[in-house]
Amino acid sequence: MDSSSDKRSTVWLKHAWKVVFVIALALLVWKAIEHSRGGSSELEALDPVVAGQERFVAVTDFIPTPAPADLASARGGVDVLVNLEDDRDDLETILEQKVGFELTLNSEYSDEANLFRLHVPASEATAVIDALAAFDGVEYAEVDGEMTAFASGPNDPLYIFQWNFDQINAEGAWPQATGKGVVVAIIDTGVAFEDGKKGRKRGILVPDLKGTVLVAGYDFVDNDVFPYDQHGHGTHVAGTVAQATNNDYGVAGLAYDAEIMPLRVLDGSGRGNFGDVADAIRFAADEDANVINLSLGSFVPSREVESAIKYAHDKGLVVVAAAGNSGTNIRSYPAAFDHVIAVAATQYDRKATFYSNYGKYIDIAAPGGNTLEDQNGDGKPDGIMQETLKRGADGKIVFEPIFSLYMGTSMAAPHVAAAAALLIQEGITNPDKVEEVLTQSAADAGSEGWDEHYGHGILDVSAALQQHQLHTGLSRLLIALVMVLLVFWRMRKRDLLEVSRPGLSFWMGWGLGAGALFVLPMLFGQAGLSGWAFSLLGRPFMAWDTVLFAAHGQNPLFASGLPVLLAAGLLLGLKWGRQWTGGFALATAAVLLVEVFRHTIDVGWIPGVGLLDQSWLAVNGAMALIIGMLALRRG
Question: Which sign, positive or negative, has the C-alpha torsion 469, 471, 477, 483?
């Protein structure tokens, strides 16, 4: 290349700084103007929105969290292990007559060891063991204890009753994501939290929400900033999303590090109006929520609510709604609107519940419970357990915390809202992509493929995270490698390459830009400081803001050619820096360009979800590609 082309390259880099600066400044100004507008217009309320989930909700109140010693009683008794001398095969019948309980082999492999078990009431266990121990031929008798895998499952004592989390493979997802920093708006009856100031509506803090972050919300029923729950429904829903977990108390939440935005639109009877719901949806969108949960519904569609949902979707929010509890194929709204993930309900045996609505608008199914059954034999109805507010015999709220079993599509929806929070933490900021990943990874149920009772299947949060991490990581890596091969082939053909082959510094820059170590968080999880480091190194540099700043809307300055331009300005003067910059630039270009077609991210500050985002990514991807080629060019 002659000196004139070198000068053109230098001039291009010089002016590229100015172009990126002007674009970034324009976005900052636009963001400030948008934020200053805020708010939403108020329209006349139409027909009431009914918390239809109350129609079939059965509630079983529990006493506050039992001590661990009481859990055996909660299971209906204890098992006693009895080991007989190996040559005493005649003792089984004699012992049954002695203690009055049936002995059964512990398993098919216990015959040779003569190991038996018997189930007795907890209050009689000591007496039975003493009687057995005194009998000739019994080597020993002891209460059968419980072992758990180390670091498997939370330490919340009532977690044993949360069969719903097992159904959706929650424990497989928690090492990868916990919803940290993601804001989930609960548009419902409010949430039980304590304001701590006198002279205002009475509010209490449900103990198992003490460790949950609650961001500022609003009460659209009473038009104030204290959205206290006057019903219990909203608190229960919020608990499924983000009940404090691993606190040695109560139960667990699915996205337990997520933040809850309480928005009260339903009164103490569980009723509200379209206008308040629409305003709450816009409030959540304007105040930077990431997910909206709507465990409410009506058979009458509202254009205002539909408009508010589109507004939220266009600002990048995932909207989840309960399918309804009439047990019919009549459409329920807002679940049946576009841009809403409609959630049907399943019970313990993975079958659709008797009350869950069905039809063409169903997208996915999740545990909603059935308090008329005890299919798992744990001595409790198969409802969804969370801590909420107690209700008196007259149905009115009693301001006391209680662990209760509810059933309804209201209980199913927050499982999906929480799963969306986990995916958003992992970098999926496009709401349509969140829905796609959740539905494509769902476990097939009912008839093969999509089904009007289950939608695309039953939620599987572990599969959703693994599918996203593996597919996204591999696609970025593959395209980044193809980009290198094409650029080197083209430049070598034109005799423009400075080097004969890429060196170590090239591949180090390339790995940083491509997120080449994406398997680290999958293998080792994201807990603790080491997990934070694995999470950072497992992402391409353009997505580092999601870890460094717990950001859940892709920062346009990271998802741009600016980091590449900065690297060029700092390192091009160094011998190894040119190769490092070239690798980093080509990988970043590949990641940006692949996102144009994958639609995984919604770029922050850019209005809408779609064409403008794709244009931004395409332009910046091309910019990074050019810088990478310039960095590797001879001279």
Answer: negative
Pick the catalytic residue from 188, 276, 460, 613: 188
CB 202 within 8 A of CB 219: no
- Listing DSSP states for 161-211 in one string gives G-HHHHHTTHHHHTTT---TT-EEEEEES-B------TTS------GGGTT
Question: Exactly one of 231, 233, 313, 339 is catalytic; which is it?
Answer: 233
Burial 196-214 (b: 16+ CB within 10 A, else e): eeeeeeebbbbbbbebbeb
Give 10-residue mean pLDDT values along the chain (635 residues). Answer: 52 53 56 43 35 37 36 59 80 76 80 83 84 83 65 82 97 92 96 67 81 95 93 96 96 97 94 95 96 96 96 96 96 97 98 97 98 93 95 80 95 98 92 96 95 98 92 90 93 88 93 91 78 86 84 82 94 91 96 88 82 92 95 87
**Angle between helical axes of 233-242 and 409-425 (0-180°, round to 10):** 30
- CA count, 13 A, side-chain hemisphere, 256: 24
Q: Is 410 designated active site? A: yes
Residue 229 to residue 388: CA distance in whole angstroms: 9
For residue 151, report the phi and psi dihedrals to the nearest 5 degrees. 60, 25
Query: Do the beta carbons of residue 540 and residue 583 sit within 8 Å?
Result: no
Q: Could you write out the DSSP letters of every residue in 510-550?
A: HHHHHTTTTHHHHHH-S-HHHHHHHHHHTS-GGGTHHHHS-
What 534-540 contacts at long range (C-beta under 8 Å, 24+ apart), as own/partner pairs, is 538/473, 539/427, 539/515, 540/476, 540/512, 540/513, 540/514, 540/515, 540/587, 540/588, 540/591
- Cα gap 343→324, rounded to integer Å: 9
| Residue 233 annotated as catalytic | yes
Judge residue 535's burial from the number of C-beta atoms within 10 Å of its C-beta, 0-12 exposed, 13-18 middle, 19 or more buried. Answer: buried
The backbone torsions φ and ψ at residue 443, rounded to the nearest 5 degrees and listed phi first, read -80, 125
**End-to-end Cα separation, the chain, in angstroms:** 7
Closest CA to 627 of 596, 581, 595: 581
CA 502 to CA 492: how far, in whole Å?
Answer: 12
Phi, psi angles (nearest 5°) of residue 158: -90, 5
Q: Residue 453 has which token pair? A: 């009772």
Q: Is residue 188 annotated as a catalytic residue, yes or no?
A: yes
Provide the CA 369 distance to its chain's centre, in angstroms: 20
Contact yes or no for 158/164 (Cβ under 8 A)? no
Q: Residue 32's CB: how many other CB atoms inside 10 A?
A: 10
SS3 state of residue 136 = coil
Distance from C-alpha of 189 to C-alpha of 410, rounded to nearest angstrom = 12
* Contact residues for 187 (Cβ-Cβ < 8 A; gap 6+): 263, 265, 277, 280, 281, 284, 292, 293, 294, 296
Instruction: Find residue 116's DSSP bridge partners.
Output: 82, 105
Q: Which of 404, 410, 462, 535 is catalytic?
A: 410
Which tokens is 262 given?
Answer: 């309480």
